[in-house]
Each structure stands twice: as structure tokens, then as C-alpha cells.
Amino acid sequence: MLQTHVIKKILLVDDNVLFLKMLSRAFEKAGFACTTCESAAAAIDYLRKETTDAILSDYQMPEMDGLEFRRYVLSQPALQNIPFIFLTNFSDQDVMTKGLDLQAVDYVLKDTPVNVIVSKLNNLIETFSKQRELSELEIKKAVSALNIKSVPQSAPQIKGYEINFWHQSFQDIPGGDFIDFITVTDRFSFIVLGDVMGKKWMAWFLSFSFLSYVRAAVRFGVLSEEYSPASILQKVNQIICYDEALKDILSSLSLLMIDHEANKVVYAGAGDLPVVHYNAKAKTVSTLNSSGLLLGLFPTATYDEIEVELEDGDQLFIFTDGMIDYSAGEETKTDYKKFVDRLQHIATPENSFIKLKDYILSQQAAAQVDDCSIIHLYKAPEKL
Amino acid sequence: MIELIKQEPGYLLADLQIDEANLAVADQFKTELIGLLDNYQRKIVLSLHQVNYIDSSFLGALVAGLKHAIAQKHDIILVGLKKDIRDLLTLIRLDKVFKIYDNYTEATSAL
């Protein structure tokens, strides 16, 4: 994972405007981005819309005091793990004891020199992120020992095609994207790309359930000589909708069946991004738009399929939504069209995967906001 | 996170007060949305006009809310979507799942 320097955001809450100004100046000088709120209510309003790396709050404030504010923060799952520091006076000793029950991580006396407050907060944020990293490392070690993967190590060799893929998990923690290549007979191969909605470990864990159902449906299909991707998706969707353990869990899926004998690729999609088709002869890209809904949405959903005959040099790009998300300054944006335009520039009648990979890597430094996966299928010209 | 704008006998008008609708706020959003459906037992017209970005975790929460509403024979109607977000919903076919209108007036006159 490429590391980027991120400015730490802190929220300062105090009804004393002068003290707020002094503190925020010192923090900004130390490289923090500061937001100041003159009441707990204003801070709560801010936290409804924005995130912060740490909160520094006064205890004694009119209306909602610091302890009540802390209770609110603890009651919100999205906020409860943010490092929280109380600003207190000597006379607030009793309060400090009460605050201990509220998991306040630290206290700072208001007459502490400002530079000490700054370095205390800095240390606290560092310790928090190190602790988080350590616990993630423990899970990573356990996962690696189990040797289970939702993305294969390498792409398979399939006659007449070159397959490549690129996958990067969000913040280096496995997420909801899953990839598989299944060669069922000499004639048929399947390409699977899915994205369980959600991020990190929970989505990663659930991706195995989806992947297992897809693998099973493909294999059962083979037993009854049923190779239609749309029919496979329909079955997988029904099973998922009736599986109580997957209640409210949704996943997109792109399923492609390569028929080597008939020289065609059949694609069916479930709430996935349209697959991009590069036509080598015309040197243009077009999209394959499926009408299928996300897996797990409605048991009665139906799926359609699109047949494509690939000529030499033609290519298909199959990708998840992480590929079209990017950060622009402080904002996150989604732009499918921009990514397709990029593919139009990158694709050439020769295998363009290396160019594609170079482009992706050049975009990665500050841009990644989710799991990213892309599969590239290239119809190789027959060698003479 | 979800502000109630108006209560009518047949529906609620609500406003999602979030700039980036992502994993960090998805669970809380789902709890609030389901709470509104359970407490008021009526359709919700939800404005996303403040939302600039929406990720798949949040979309998952939104769809979970819709499924809850449908099970109660109610609905969640979306209004005020920015272009990027509307385009994304169309790309992944969620425009077939949610009723989408430009604003509250359009949505309520279609109810």
C-alpha cells in the first residue's frame, strides 16, 4: 500500500472563544487542520457531517457540558473510537474521576503550555493508530496462516486468450472484492468478479459465502450441462436471498463464460459496472450493459446475458467500483465515464495490460478510497 | 444524520445531512432510517441533496432500509440526487429499485 501524508483533523470544543483561538492557532502551526466549536451542540452538528482524528473538549460549558458531550460521542458507533481529551481546571478533580467511567483517554489542565497540549495530542493520535495497526496485523497473520484467499495469486492460462488482473485492497486490509477463474471443461471457462457491499474484514468474510455459492452454481450447472451465466446468476441470487446468514448483504457480480469452441464470450451482470469492450479493428470502446440487479436484493430478480464475439486484439475490461472512485483534494468522487475515456486512450490492438497497470499505479498515490479490482481479457491473435 | 422536515399522513419528508455517505456513517444511517420507518409507518421521501459521494457500504444500508420499507408495504423515495450519484445509481441499476425524483414537490405529487 502506498502511504500518503494526511493532515490530521482535530475538533476543539470550548465556550471560551479566546482560548479556542489560541489553541487552534497553535495546532495549525503544528500542522493540524482545526475545527472549533463554541458548544457541544455545535460539535455534534459538525460530527454528523464530518470526521475528525481527535476531539479536545472543555468540561465546563453551559447547556450540554463535556461529560454529556462525551456520553453522546460514545453512543455513536461511528464516533466512539475517536481519541477524546478533556480540558479541565484543577477544581474539576471530581469530574476527572467521573470521566474515567466514560473512557476519556486523557485529561489536560487548561493552564498547561500550549506546545505541551499539542505534543500530548499528537502522541495520543499516534498511539491510537499504532494500536489499530497492531490489531490489524494480528488478524492479517491469522488469515495468512489459514491460507484462504478471495483473490487468486495469478491468472490462469486459457487457450486463445491472455488474462490478467490487478487487485488492491483498501488500506491493505482484505475487503469485499472477490475474483475467481474456473475452467470447467476444455470448452468452457468462467471469469468471476464480485464486490460485497461494505469494506474491510466484514465484507471480506462475507465474500467467501458469495464466492462459494458462485463456484457451486457453476459446478452444478456443468453437471446438468447448463452453462448460461444468466441462469447461474439467477440461481445464486435465489439462494442468497433465502440464506438468513446473508440477510441485508448485497453483492455485485460480473460473470463471463468463455466458449472456446464457439469462439464467444457470454456475460451476465448483477448490479455491476458495465463491462468495457475494446474493438481492435475500429479502435473504439463500448460498454456491455446488463440489466441484472444486485445479488441479494429480490429473489424474483431475473438476469439477462450478452454474447460477444471477440476478434483478434479485442479486449474486455471488467472492474469494481473502487476503480472509478478517486480523491480530489478533500473530496471523494465517482466517475465511470472518466475511467472509460481513460481506457479508450490506453487500449491498443496489442495486449494493453501493462499500459493499464502503469496508469492505475500512477493514479494510486492519493486516490484509493475502496477495494480496487480490474480483470483484463485479451483475445490473442493466433500465432502462425 | 437524517433530519425530519415534514410529517404528512401518508409520508415523511426527510433530509440526509451528510457530505460523504460512506462506511463510517452507514450503520448509524441504517439504524435511523429503520427507526423512522418503524416509528412512523409511512413512506419516506429522502433528500440526498447534501451528499457529494456515496460508497457501496452506504448504498448497502440504503437498500437494506428499502427492503425493510417494502416488507412493511411502504417505500423510500429518493430526491435531490447530484449528477454523479444519480449516474452511479443508474449504472448499477438501482434506479430500477428506487423511485427517484428531482425534488420533494415532484415526488409528493407522484405519490
TrEMBL record, chain A:
SUPFAM superfamilies xrefs: CheY-like, PP2C-like
PROSITE patterns the UniProt entry points to: RESPONSE_REGULATORY
Entry GO MF terms: phosphatase activity
Residues carrying 4-aspartylphosphate: 58
Keyword field: Hydrolase, Phosphoprotein
Domain Response regulatory positions: 9-125
InterPro entries: Bact_Sigma-Reg, CheY-like_superfamily, PPM-type-like_dom_sf, PPM-type_phosphatase-like_dom, Sig_transdc_resp-reg_receiver
UniProt-listed GO biological process terms: phosphorelay signal transduction system
The protein's name: Fused response regulator/phosphatase
Gene source species: Mucilaginibacter straminoryzae
Organism taxonomic ancestry: Bacteria, Pseudomonadati, Bacteroidota, Sphingobacteriia, Sphingobacteriales
Automatic annotation (TrEMBL), chain B:
Domain STAS intervals: 20-111
MF GO annotations: anti-sigma factor antagonist activity
PROSITE patterns attached to this UniProt entry: STAS (PS50801)
Superkingdom as given in the UniProt entry: Bacteria
One Pfam family here: STAS
Species for this entry: Mucilaginibacter straminoryzae
Name this protein carries in UniProt: STAS domain-containing protein
